[in-house]
């Protein structure tokens, strides 16, 4: 599988990333999913301390035991949680980040994290303090690089201007084209990579699009009504009834040079197999990319501009 550089970090991530949030809590099944992903050339695993209140990190850490050097491991911090009560609150303080990484390292059974992200962020955060924490961890070798998981252009611009982030994780798919407005080009110009999460739009852009639209999009999705979602799905089908929707949707977000990897989830090996079944060695042709853009509409950010 092709690999792309993550910003200026020297880290190379596979163009497809296994998002671990959907792995569940059955260790055997989760390990099978991770092992299959690694066997297919995926080297990048994405987790977070908040997923299942730390259990996800524990499962990932146990599953990659003995394979750590083969893997680019990403986790996130910023949500101060209580595993016993299930409560959490936003905490981007230096104290919490420095403590949070220690706990994540223990759960992941590793002594370093390749890419560490702030799991959110607002313009009112103590941004300089947050950056100071990540820079400290980087200097100490606890993390190799850092970034932010955010869809807020105003917050992203602050980090680009004030820090040495190497990547930004944001939602991006054919239905959610907000990053195309300005932010993808902006990050590319600053040599900062994008990790595109949600490329299949909750399955509504997958091989099971209509079924998922009826489940996940019955009340609409980002300004699209259920009827509009179904209409686009039908147009895609008419355009090419043999199209592998998963491949098409993943390659759509990978088309922009800022995007280093498309981050998708899987709750079974069969789902994983179906998602990555396709030719990912070549990029989407320009004419197909343009045709897809004409099927949807370029929605824009209305808040956090």
TrEMBL record:
Domain (NADP-dependent oxidoreductase) ranges: 16-294
Family matches, as Pfam families: Aldo_ket_red
The organism's place on the tree of life at top rank: Bacteria
CDD domains associated with the record: AKR_AKR11C1 (cd19086)
Name of the molecule in the record: Oxidoreductase
